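Tokens for hydroxymethylglutaryl-CoA reductase (NADPH). Go.
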Amino acid sequence: MSKNYSNPSYNKSSTTFDQESSQDFHKLSPRLGRPETSLTLDPYISNQALSKRWKKLSQYTDRQVLLDEYTESTCTVYDKNIEHFIGTVKVPVGIAGPIRVNGLHANGDYLIPLATTEAALVASYNRGAKLITEAGGASTMLLKEGITRTPVFVFQRLAQAGEFVAWLSTQVDHFKAVAETTTKHGKLVNVNFNIESNQVHTIFEYHTGDASGQNMVTIATNAIYSFILKNSPIEPEEAYLESNLSGDKKPTSYPLRHVRGKKVVSEITINKFLVEKYLHTTPKDLVRFGQVSATGAMLNGGIGINAHYANALAALYIACGQDAACVAESTVGITRMELTNTGDLYASVTMPNLMVGSVGGGTSLPSQKACLDIMGLHGAGKARALAEVAAALCLAGELSIMGAFCAGHFSRAHQKLAR
């Protein structure tokens, strides 16, 4: 009896394979030998290294486009931020606001620099910022902060894992002392252990001052990790500095119940007449749209519910020298809209995963420092305020984009501005 191996779900139109392209599959075979183009092995910034790189790159593009005179004259400031440096990319920066923030740490009217190549983005946040400001400002509160690194230790049997955790629990004070030998600003504030079969996942949580802190906690935890491997009475079969439990640069549900980075809530109650004036819709329609879109987020397996935190955070992070990859985790959160007893709009964002710093990283590079200076948020003592401003900005964006969908203006705005 013949067998049918066909796939009933196969759709010929969905594949790029055809008889002609199948003849080119030999292109996928490994090719050994030297690459046609190779650059200097020296990863650091020096005039000699730059000259060697551009000697080869100039056949592809104009050196001045990436390495203009100002960039070349100040290139040493980038030495701690990048390897194999060849220049800078100029991303357009726009200003949104002012947005009024009534926070515990950020209290004032802020002009927000946003770096993006997406038309209509700055205009949208500017509209939401003006609405928030005319309504009296967004009440914004930083609730918690903390950042983790999570080593894992693997044993042969569960009993060994249990003995190991029993020993770990007696060493917490030692861990704190070891961590503090690596940093003046970071503090180990909490240690947890999770046994999964014969694996022990450890969770080291820190406060990192005004720095975003990823490098700080990595270095501190590595010192603890080395101490454990040297002193543990039960030797693990395997061990790794990171187990993927920290949520570093990926969305997870953990921060919704706790925190990663900085947890901030921003809320506002807006008179229905202001909603109609700025958003050309009603509080009732916004609340209903929020309910429907929450269902869509659930059907899509979303973590949290929001319209587009990523737009605000990517543009803000790039402008202000934050780690742009952290947008992946920072966009976890919950947007909520309700109708008040008087028919006005209550709107809030809860953002438990804001990874921002006012020192370290790229915050002192020339353009990025200038953007932080516009907000008055560069330097020591400003990180918590920056987190509150970021949350208020996201609230402005949620109001604006949800209003655009309710009023039927979303597509029209992009057609008008993306000309």
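DSSP finds 16 helices and eleven strands in the chain.
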